[in-house]
Amino acid sequence: MCEIDAAVSELANSPLEGWSARELRAARDRLYTLEHDCDMLANQRQAFLNERPPMDNLHLDGKEFDEYLYHSQDFTYPVLSAITAHVERIQRVRGRICKHLATE
Q1: Is 100 left (phi over 0), alpha (psi -120 to 50) or beta?
Q2: Given 23, 43, 76, 103, which is the most exposed site by the fewest CB atoms within 10 A?
Q3: For the purposes of burial, counting CB atoms within 10 Å of the CB of 97, is it exposed (0-12), middle (13-18) or buried (19 or more)?
Q4: CB-based contact 4:87 (threshold 8 Å)
Q5: Residues 6+ apart with CB under 8 A from 104
Q6: Which residues, in sequence order, are CB contacts of 4 under 8 Å at separation 6+?
Q7: First-last CA distance in the chain
Q8: How many CB atoms lie within 10 A of CB 21?
Q9: Tens digit of pLDDT for each residue in 59-72?
Q10: At what angle do helices 21-51 and 2-12 cross, to 10 degrees?
């Protein structure tokens, strides 16, 4: 995730004025690849969560383990929430790049 974040931050913080259409397309394509990488991470995480052994023997006030653990947070699955936030940022940056491409 750190590598994805660094790559997105570099593109997000770059002034796009003066970039050629070729450079903009390459950046857009890189963001599509990063989004795919996030999707793969999310799939792996979801598979891990689904394959975990049940924790029925814990007494958690009738709540599932993750719900009990993160009840004071806005999320139940922090890794999936982080991946989703990265995907949303990738899509925003890609939208900015696509707007510049449309004016080329």
Answers
A1: alpha
A2: 103
A3: buried
A4: no
A5: 21, 24
A6: 34, 37, 38, 86
A7: 32
A8: 11
A9: 677 777 777 777 78
A10: 150
Closest CA to 67 of 76, 80, 58: 76
Sign of CA dihedral 12, 15, 16, 19: negative
What tokens appear for 43 in the block? 């799939």
Task: Show the tokens assigned to 76.
Answer: 């139940």
| pLDDT digits 0-9 by tens, 3-45 | 999 999 999 999 999 999 999 999 999 999 999 999 999 999 9
Contact status, residue 97 vs residue 24, Cβ threshold 8 Å: yes
